[in-house]
């Protein structure tokens, strides 16, 4: 049979699929506290189980970042093992975050043979503290040639261990850092923890000046908003591009996209809601404080957001959230797509990363209060953030750079690649006052009446929101909106903490010298704020970030506009950035160089795989579909003529399809050539080749393929279409 009914089989399978809700077992109990954190070894649990002196030692490390007293490890190991074994664990793993952006684990059993020929479960302090997973195939950017492949994982006592359950067993997961045998970071956690220390030191110093003598630590807080797509797995398996690249490499836009915006905040379909509830339940059990869920702008797009936590735990929980979203989806016959742009022509997915600093006893340093103009601490930290962002536009851009995110940034759905700050009306007004000699008042929000006596009056915020800004002040925190949905939040937050440490350090020393000269704190502060803003105020922008005018205006202001990943990456190890990361002991030059090499490598491999997959799809699925259709049409022409019919209509169609096919084959030749050529031996050259040659060739093939999709008979088309994937639930 020449026809392909594969698509219809798939549709039928989706239509007939019934999903199990997994019944009561999957339901969130009305009293969430009954399950919250039951699969994580939390502080209270540790405290209850450990001998008092040991607990006291450990707590110093967890809450005050005191150096780990390794003598506690044996006791903690026993407690951890007992806790996990009670929950059915037979194995443990050092859970780490290599520079692939994913997580990694290698399981070891607790089993230790004993003399009588039996075995017991054992776990020592040594095994807790250090692992040697070998794991020589993770990217190391040259820090770790395979012939000296030792790599170590080291227990991170500040992030709770947890268990992962499977129907057939349970594994204890211990959050760890991952480093080469020379102690160089090969992961995302190590620099994040180092940056936490850097910003804490400078923050504490600043707070001392303002009279907060008893603040021991400043912590960095993070709350993320994860966007994702869900599609039926029947479609997924029929799309080699989704299976291999996590995004569709061909696919014509459906007649109905997101134009009606009828999906956004719409009621959540049953199957999806059942899925969300089970995923949330699993996250609660792991101690991830999930708070909101809703439909997003694009059809089949959704969002989940937890309550913020300290950044290290938030980063681990972010990884667990991504893993859980994917894992639970399969139980409902769905696939969760975390890619930044799985479908062209509808919105992509981001991961707004909310960030602030707080004292260890919970005072938010970016809380403006009722009278921000006279809130010295707030103004100081907010100004430091502005200074940090202004100076390090390049680093923030690099922190969100990836092949996937390139599809989003600046595409009228996500902030532009230009880094700027939105402050809102109230703060902008205060900064104007500061620049004109001193802030005397704060604009008030007031109350909003809704025109009906039965409706309450709402307190109105003193500033509106701006959805087009990459870095927006949202009430009591900054929201880094340009982060990509598939990314780890670790590096973006590492950058934020580090640049904040530097800005605070510079302002601290200006303040100190003014105070030494005998100035009072208000006068010194006013001068420092004013002089800082003089340099930095061009980073503030409250207009429409999507507009062309902003591109021009930003250029005039001298702001960076690093449009793509390949425009941005080379700046990572500039002198400015090496100095910054070395001064604050977050990354060494060697570690930065390695990271850069890995970023190039990931970019290269991503596009290389996409290029070859596009070639393969065109060659083995799309061309055959067009050829078969032409064959059928040609038969009609021939037979039609033989019985004396006018066949102009069919001939017109054949010509169109044939033109489309010719166009596809021609562009495919270019892509094949670009795929064969790797662009050189150096990884940077290879990445540039992908950017300059493979991506344009891929786009041409896609255009031709999408034109054919609109022409070829539906029952010949071998791939699930956008209409199928996005609208059939
Ligand atoms: P918005 O409506 O501005 O997006 P939400 O209150 O819904 O604000 O918060 C969005 C995210 O920001 C949540 O994950 C929330 O926990 C997080 N968030 C709130 N306050 C802070 C803070 N001080 N530091 C870091 N994240 C925060
Ligand atoms: Mg938000």
Structural class: alpha+beta
- Percentage of residues in DSSP E strands: 5-15%
Q: Tell me the radius of gyration.
A: 28 Å
- The counted number of beta strands is 19
**Ends apart, CA distance between termini:** 30 Å
Biggest sheet details: 9 strands, mixed
Task: Give a written overview of the molecule.
The protein is α+β, with helices and mostly antiparallel strands and 729 residues long. 46% of the residues lie in helices and 13% in strands. Strands 9, 10, 11, 12, 13, 14, 15, 18 and 19 form a nine-stranded mixed sheet that branches. Helix 9 (270-285) packs across helix 10 (311-331) and helix 11 packs across helix 14 (490-516). The chain is globular and about 105 Å long. The relative contact order is 0.11. Bound molecules: adenosine-5'-diphosphate (ADP) and magnesium ion. Adenosine-5'-diphosphate (ADP) is lined by residues 221-223, 225, 305-308, 354-356, 364, 474, 476-477.
List keywords for this structure.
alpha+beta; 19 strands; globular; binds magnesium ion
Compose a concise summary of this entry.
By secondary structure, this protein is α+β, with helices and mostly antiparallel strands. Helices cover about 45% and strands about 15% of the residues. The chain contains 22 helices and 19 strands.
